[in-house]
Amino acid sequence: MLFQPEHLFQPSYNKTIQKMNGFYIVDNFFENFETVQQCLYDCPHENYHMNKDGRNFKDYYDCRTFFRNVTPDENLMEERKKYLTYLINETEEWEHHAPHWDPAFYFNIFKMGDRKLEAGKEWGQVPHVEDSINMIVYIDRVCEGGTALYKKQYSIEQQEPDDALMDLTDYEYDLVEAKPNRMVLFDGNRLHGAVFNDYSKYYNEPRINMVQFF
Fold it and tell me: Domain ranges in the chain?
């Protein structure tokens, strides 16, 4: 596929924001969602965290893909900036936040490998934080589980890059339900991470999200 990133990843400019419990949802985020989805399924993906004792590319496949958007369409990029600034400033908590802008587009790709996780437990990504406002767009066809936003700032031993998965059974969180072409905004300083209701659905299909930090 040959494409210009600003054209392919153009938002639909839907300004209907659903305010939930500490996060904000915009559905039907991409104008050309089916093409975006097909692009991410067709392109190769590079490994993320790796070390000799780690579980990546053994128990699971954790990858990152990005498009640098080196020479963007300036008009479209400015429209995208205005739109995302509007969404951020519509939330009272962030109305004075000055977003950090990166023209590139970043994607997280995850797929289960040989590991069989213990049944009867809630499994997901090791919870973590970023000092930013975070945006996630759910892209894959499965869209199982979603993003856990934890109700407490639990003290958790960071396992990555050794093991990106952990048992979340004893942790309380609000769930952002994954849905194709759904965008969610939340405070990255709140402990968060991917969560699976049925991780087995990602043995044959990858989990694909776009992620940006403002």
Answer: 16-213
Q: 51-54: long-range contacts at Cβ-Cβ below 8 A with a sequence spacing of 24 or more?
A: 51/161, 51/162, 53/162, 54/161, 54/162, 54/163
The model carries a pTM of 0.94
Tens of pLDDT along the chain (214 residues)? 899 999 999 999 988 889 888 899 999 999 999 999 999 999 999 999 888 889 999 999 999 999 999 999 999 999 999 999 888 888 778 877 778 889 999 999 999 998 998 888 899 999 999 999 999 999 999 999 999 999 988 988 766 668 999 999 999 999 999 999 999 999 999 999 999 989 999 999 999 999 999 9
CA separation for the pair 55, 44 (Å, rounded)? 20
CATH numeric code, 16-213: 2.60.120
Residue 104 CB contacts under 8 Å (≥ 6 apart), including other chains:
66, 67, 68, 69
- On the CB side of 134, CA atoms within 13 Å amount to 23
